[in-house]
Amino acid sequence: xxxxxxxxxxxxxxxxxxxxxxxxxxxxxxxxxxxxxxxxxxxxxxxxxxxxxxxxxxxxxxxxxxxxxxxxxxxxxxxxxxxxxxxxxxxxxxxxxxxxxxxxxxxxxxxxxxxxxxxxxxxxxxxxxxxxxxxxxxxxxxxxxxxxxxxxxxxxxxxxxxxxxxxxxxxxxxxxxxxxxxxxxxxxxxxxxxxxxxxxxxxxxxxxxxxxxxxxxxxxxxxxxxxxxxxxxxxxxxxxxxxxxxxxxxxxxxxxxxxxxxxxxxxxxxxxxxxxxxxxxxxxxxxxxxxxxxxxxxxxxxxxxxxxxxxxxxxxxxxxxxxxxxxxxxxxxxxxxxxxxxxxxx
RNA sequence: UGGGGCGUGGCCAAGUGGUAAGGCACCAGUUUUUGGUACUGGCAUUCGCAGGUUCGAUCCCUGCCGCCCCAG
Length: 346
Fold this sequence. Notes:
Layout: E1 3-7, H1 12-23, E2 27-34, H2 47-61, E3 65-69, H3 71-87, H4 94-113, E4 118-120, E5 126-128, E6 131-133, H5 151-155, E7 157-158, H6 167-176, H7 198-205, E8 211-214, E9 220-224, E10 247-252, E11 257-261, E12 270-281, E13 291-295, E14 303-310, E15 313-323, E16 330-335, E17 338-345
Helix pairs in contact: 1-2, 1-6, 3-4
This protein binds one RNA strand through helix 4.
């Protein structure tokens, strides 16, 4: 009987994951990863609540329950990474880093060390022979967040929810199983900051100064309270009225300037190609010159793009120009249903 | 201080005698395990100010204030 350690966050998805595996005959142990516990002014960190929910479900399922404390590593690998990227003027994706560094590295290692044969999470994805495949439910597919997980880690991972046709089915399953978390609301936003906006979070760690908002004709048309808060394609929060909406097209951290356009078709907003850094390919790299499907943000539709390896860098040439391709964000490459890997926009 | 034009919510902007369109911004909500996007809803008892005409004025008249343009 295989021993599986299931990462239980206290949400429905991981609860169902644990329950299903147990039902399938695995020897399941629930593990709550304690990654972040700090409160922010006005926003208590929800970790305790989540912990209680996870524990509650473990008791219901009558499975062993453990807590792994990764706070130190999480702060370093995820939060510091995120802050550094923002300071550098890029827009990072901390959840991708969390999967790479914490869930599918630290957690996996600790679980194996504890005697586990496999780990499992409530991600909507499939894995076969250490390959990563899109979830059956295209609407919930979370492979975008998982492209940096290694082949070796995937070989020891189970994603039971990948076969579900919809989130509704997962909820039904949770109800059928009578899980305490069956009706718990889905979490959104960066996992560790909970309900807090990224803006409030960053404010705690960086000092910011007001600066100019400049349009494509070089005119200063407004003021912002810190370039770090803005990202490419952003519309809200600029406070500029009159005429058409404004979208951020770029920023200069040294000058503390934010650039915008009112022209939704502006070339500053639409990109036809980009280079990737820190690429990660799960089993093998793409064939240079071939066309694949890429995803430039979670839940964005797959877009055709040609991958070209030139001057030691992977270039992505989109079939159609894409909106708001943002440095620091990830582009994930798909070969039909399989995730080949991806990289970070330079 | 001669001529012309304008002043509608934070911004842009319709209306022009019958009781304030629309867009942007903003706020709220929905969607979303990143940022962001998108979607839905809310948002001027009031039209620079003061008088007058009228049953009734943002719309007509007078004066004042402010702004712009052309002449200078």
